[in-house]
Amino acid sequence: MKKRWYDFLWIASLIYLALGFFNILFAWLGLLCFFLPLFIALSKGTKGYCNRYCGRGQLLGLLGGRFGLSRKKDIPQWMKSRAFRYGFLIFFFTMFFQMLYSTYLVFSGAQDLGQAVTLLWAFRLPWHWAYRGTLLHDGVAQFAFGFYSVMLTSTVLGLITMVLFKPRSWCVYCPMGTMTQLICKAQSRKG
């Protein structure tokens, strides 16, 4: 089977994580992974991003499949349930809006820039080497630290579920996948 350009988007996922390690402002690029799935779902009515363009899904498939880092067990039924997927989506958005609120506080001057990445929404990792200040407001960096935290946490969760279950088990409860699925269902009801 001939490889296409989008079969190599897993490389973009690795580059994204590496760039954020050295300069946190590159975390803003992660917004592409946030808006592109929504745009494709809204414009095409499909989960084309998830099925074809998601670099994280490709990376998990590669690591778990080709490199054999997965136990290849079925994901538990409760993780496939609507309640878990929607509950995780709500939790994810709560954390996302908390990150936006912290960004707002830095922009407004009510809070200083926190040069840390929060892993799994609980562990604050000092990340001061990745930001030396710029001409931009500290709020821009605060958003980057927060967004990189979200992206790193979701990657770690994906890696954990990849090792424990099938390679792309993260895709079952990925918040972006759940949102695009909701959009596609809503559009199919309209049509």
TrEMBL record:
| Annotated transmembrane regions | 14-42, 86-107, 143-165
Is this entry keyworded Transmembrane helix?
yes
Keywords of the record, alphabetical order, are: Membrane, Transmembrane, Transmembrane helix
The lineage's top-level taxon is Bacteria
The answer to keyword Membrane applying to this record is yes
Record protein name field = 4Fe-4S binding protein
Name the source organism.
Answer: Candidatus Alectryocaccomicrobium excrementavium
**Lineage summary:** Bacteria, Bacillati, Bacillota, Clostridia, Candidatus Alectryocaccomicrobium
